[in-house]
Specification:
- The chain has about 100 residues and is mostly helical.
- The protein has one domain.
- The protein is globular.
- The chain has a two-stranded antiparallel ribbon.
- The chain has 3 helices and 2 strands, in the order H-E-E-H-H.
- The protein is about 35% helix and about 10% strand.
- The longest helix has 21 residues.
Length: about 100
């Protein structure tokens, strides 16, 4: 089976959408919300390389720290946390009309 090269999507506009939003994990709205990148290899993460900008979740500093450095969640829980919150982020973007489909 051939391995396909992963394409890194870079989109600063998408990352900036997190400004003034609430954390999709805990609901806090405290001006620490950022577009946190997935840490999963299948999303483009590698040694000293972030995943692509399309694999983000709007997290506050506490939730972002818990995902990246915390020890309370197992590896499996962090994977589930990541998928759940990427989905919540994109659902929120659609609800707020922040993204659209173009022809």
């Amino acid at each position: 089976m051939l391995k396909s090269k992963s394409t890194t999507i870079s989109n600063p506009k998408l990352l900036r959408l997190a400004k003034d939003q609430e954390c999709v994990s805990c609901g806090v709205q405290d001006r620490t919300i950022v577009s946190a990148h997935s840490n999963l290899y299948e999303h483009g993460r590698g040694m000293s390389k972030k995943s692509c900008d399309s694999m983000i979740m709007w997290l506050c500093s506490n939730c972002h720290y818990a995902l990246d450095y915390g020890t309370a969640m197992s590896k499996e829980e962090k994977v589930e946390f990541t998928y759940r919150n990427i989905c919540k982020t994109y659902k929120r973007m659609w609800e707020l009309d922040l993204i659209e489909v173009k022809k």
